[in-house]
Specification:
The longest helix is centred in the middle third of the chain and has 32 residues. This protein folds into two domains: 95 residues, Immunoglobulins (Immunoglobulin-like), CATH 2.60.40.10; 346 residues, no CATH class. The chain is built from 23 helices and nine strands. Strands 1, 4, 7, 8 and 9 form a five-stranded mixed β-sheet that branches. Helix 2 runs antiparallel to helix 3 and helix 3 packs parallel to helix 17. The chain has 555 residues and is of the alpha+beta class.
């Protein structure tokens, strides 16, 4: 009897197993990719799966936008599973997954999703932080480094307090904040600051000040024009930040000799630097992004942008005459020849051996800058390599160089600013601007050119032009393909000119501006936000008008 019961139980279990299709015992996988309206991957999206109102699986998308959920405890393949997607500043979206494909060892469904932006609480808080930061800097209530730090820390702190209680208030995670910091920029600046700091010990910058004054033959406006042209050309083939790191000490020395305001030389130079950097593929980071995305070559940038940049530079030189003509007239030079002889005696090379080493290293770094695209190497690697080599062969005191020559307040300002801009990017502020351009442009080539160049200019004057340009790339690509007559590169030139020249609008609109201000402040000449705005703002507007006319006529 006992054997009969056991046999019957086994037989019943066997029949039960047979009654279940082998497919139903296999696990289910739901995966896909999440992007925004510009087809950019969206990371850290919460993805949840529900069956009959009960949550059965959840995951988070990675930084490439991919997500994957495996469900192992289902007795049968359901007719449908609801999948929800949620991230702060995006609309929550639900979809039904009702088709699964047998792939042998698993039933799989792939569902890609495009999330739509939503101006929720996080959006408005991030916008308020951006506005407050600019107000603190503009009215000089705090030093710009402290103002940016307040904004960055506040965005992260609120995310982990209010954002923890309610995800609608989550602005930016710590990981996202760290990724927002462009270490390529930070290390590039640090490396070049070390190189310039060591070169200062040779007396080369004082000697260059003498040579510059000699070339101008005592005419201060001519001197300013020469410095602007040298700055623009150098920025086109080097980069504007490195150029200003090299020329700022020279210009301050010249101003001290002539007893004029150093900013009458420095501000014109930095404006010319941002213009010159626009002319080539490697002159400014936005151009590198545009060239890579649109497959534009170095020669295409050179041929299409150099003529208009030359015009803008010449116009800017004469505009500087209007702004600083009186200051140039104050130059205390009674006997030009006597001053020349004095400068020749006092402003000379003091360490030729170290200078030769420095020039070899600088030349090597510049060569790497020019070839970094072919080498697929970030410019910061070249700068750090050069700085390391020069520290070794010069015998300089590393601690002294790091303490006295590296502008830590400037570097920290950039890091904090990157986080604030990252918060604006995460909450959709930058994408909102891009969407506005796309919507207003419609199918008009003229409207697209005007909108792209002007929105890019004003946006780049307020926020960092690198993330803005990155957000605009798919928008401009879409408009290039859909607008009649825009199939060439004219819209790409509009983006380049707007993003690069817009940096002249404010003191923090371009990296070169901030670096120059930091070096001047260290020398005892703090540059006020409003003082730069009074000159840079009009120059930006004039430059964009010239560029717009150029594109509409010949673009």
């Amino acid at each position: 009897m006992k054997k009969t019961v056991i046999t019957a139980s086994i037989f019943y279990l066997f029949l039960t197993l047979l009654s279940i299709s082998p497919a139903f015992s296999l696990p289910v996988q739901i995966d896909g990719k999440i992007v925004n309206a510009h087809d950019t991957p969206v990371g850290d999206v919460k993805v949840e799966a529900f069956l009959n109102g009960k949550k059965i699986a959840n995951t988070v998308s990675n930084e490439s936008g991919f997500y994957e959920m495996k469900i192992d405890n289902l007795s049968v393949i359901p007719s449908s599973i609801k999948v929800s997607f949620f991230k702060s500043s995006y609309k929550k979206q639900d979809i039904l997954v009702n088709k699964f494909y047998n792939e042998g060892k698993i039933f799989r469904a792939t569902k890609n999703e495009t999330l739509k932006r939503e101006a929720g609480p996080a959006f408005w808080i991030a916008l308020a932080i951006l506005i407050v930061m600019y107000a603190l800097i503009t009215f000089e209530l705090f030093h710009r480094t402290l103002a940016a730090t307040i904004g960055a820390v506040l965005a992260i702190f609120l995310s982990y307090t209010l954002g923890t209680l309610n995800q609608d208030y989550f602005i930016i995670s710590f990981d996202e904040a760290m990724k927002a910091i462009d270490l390529n920029v930070i290390f590039l600046l640090m490396g070049m600051m070390i190189i310039v700091g060591i070169m200062k010990k040779t007396g080369v910058f004082q000697w260059l000040a003498y040579i510059s004054y000699k070339l101008s033959k005592g005419k201060v406006f001519r001197l300013a024009a020469i410095l602007m042209i040298v700055t623009a050309v150098t920025s086109a083939f080097l980069d504007n930040v490195t150029t200003m790191l090299l020329l700022t000490p020279v210009s301050i020395e010249i101003a001290l000799v002539l007893k004029i305001n150093p900013f009458s030389l420095l501000i014109p130079e930095v404006l010319a630097s941002n213009a010159g950097g626009t002319a080539t593929l490697i002159g400014d980071p936005p151009n590198i992004l545009i060239g890579s995305y649109a497959h534009l070559t170095f020669n295409q940038f050179l041929i299409n942008l150099t003529p208009v940049i030359a015009i803008i530079t010449v116009v800017t030189i004469f505009v500087m005459k209007l702004f600083y003509g009186k200051e140039y007239g104050k130059a205390a030079v009674e006997n030009v020849d006597e001053l020349m002889r004095k400068l020749k005696r006092e402003y000379k090379i003091t360490d030729m051996k170290l200078l030769k080493k420095s020039l070899w290293v600088l030349g090597f770094v510049i060569l790497l800058f020019i070839t970094h695209g072919a080498l697929h190497m970030e410019p910061s690697v070249a700068a750090l390599l050069g700085a390391t080599i020069l520290l070794v062969i010069s015998g300089a005191d590393v601690v002294e160089i790091l303490e006295k020559e590296v502008e830590w307040p400037t570097l920290i300002f950039f890091m904090m600013l990157f986080i604030v801009v990252g918060a604006a990017e995460q909450t959709g502020i930058i994408q909102m601007l891009a969407d506005m351009v796309k919507h207003l442009a419609g199918t008009s080539r003229v409207a697209a050119i005007i909108l792209i160049i002007w929105v890019s200019a004003f946006a780049s004057a307020i926020i960092d032009n690198i993330p803005f340009t990155a957000t605009m790339l798919p928008v401009v690509g879409y408009l290039t393909e859909t607008i009649p007559g825009a199939h060439g590169a004219v819209l790409w030139w509009a983006l380049s000119l707007g993003a690069c020249l817009g940096g002249n609008g404010t003191l923090i609109g371009a990296s070169a501006n901030v670096v120059t201000a930091g070096l001047a402040e260290k020398a005892g000449y703090p540059l006020r936000f409003v003082e730069f705005l009074k000159v840079g703002g009009p120059v930006m507007v004039i430059s964009i008008i010239i560029a717009t006319v150029w594109l509409l006529i010949g673009g």
